[in-house]
Amino acid sequence: MVVLITGGSGALGIELQKIFPKNISPTHKELDITNKEQVKKIFQQNEIDTIIHTAAITKIRICEENKSLAWSVNVQGTKNLIEEINNLESNINFVYVSTACVFDGHIGMYTEKSIPYPENFYSLTKLLGEFEVNRLPNTTIIRTNFVPRKPWPYEKAFTDRFGTYLFADQVANGIQEVINEKFTGIVHIVGDKKMSLFELAQITTPGIEPMTINEYSGPPLTMDMSLDTERLKKYKISN
């Protein structure tokens, strides 16, 4: 099975390359998904069985401040991939990595059947990406929430934002399981424990400082990103 991994330089893309040895992971220079000609070329030059689409602008502040960039990559870029597959009349298996942030975060423990309602522009673009993906017959939408298994990149972490978090390598293993089991539709890959971002950060960075949303200024954030699943097992977060 030949797997095209978009966003191969990201935390999840790096872990996916370890799991799928027959992968094509072009750099951004080799494949800019906002460039239709480059998208067409990657399909012409390779026999692709599966696409795992992780490429996205994920920084909430950047998406809010540069909506045209976020739209171009997260929505139009996804649309370009989908349209090329449809043009080829190909039965490529398309796996789209979405986010827990498609939900408003007011309740938490959202299942695959819960109704999305984004809180910010980043979340909206990812939800619209899901709509584009649904134009294909053979697709899987993965909603999840993960961080790389590295020291926390900030001085502080929120004690009042929550999720069923996992590390990127665990999500990569979950995606492999989803593909092997031939799941289609929406699947949540989740941890078995609801925790705060502060608790998550403590796993890799014991000296992390706590903070609350009152100390934050910026675009609206999804406060409770916890997901539940009715389709897949839950994974135990490990350090």
Q: What is the alpha-carbon Rg in Å?
A: 17 Å
Overall number of strands: 12
Portion in strands: 15-25%
Count of structural domains:
1
Mean pLDDT: 97
CATH architecture: 3-Layer(aba) Sandwich
Q: Mind telling me the CATH class?
A: Alpha Beta
Euclidean distance between termini CA atoms? 31 Å
Structural class: alpha/beta
Provide the low-confidence segments as ranges: none
What form results from the Cα inertia axes? globular
Might you state the CATH topology name? Rossmann fold
Helix coverage percent: 25-40%
> Can you summarize the main beta sheet?
6 strands, parallel
Number of helical regions: 7
CATH superfamily: NAD(P)-binding Rossmann-like Domain
Write the layout of secondary structure elements.
Layout: E1 3-6, H1 11-19, E2 23-24, H2 36-45, E3 50-53, H3 60-65, H4 67-88, E4 93-97, H5 121-133, E5 139-143, E6 146-147, E7 156-158, E8 162-163, E9 166-167, H6 168-180, E10 185-188, E11 195-196, H7 197-204, E12 209-211
Parallel strand pairs: 1-2, 1-3, 3-4, 4-5, 5-10, 6-9, 7-12
Antiparallel strand pairs: 8-11
Helix pairs in contact: 1-6, 2-4, 4-5
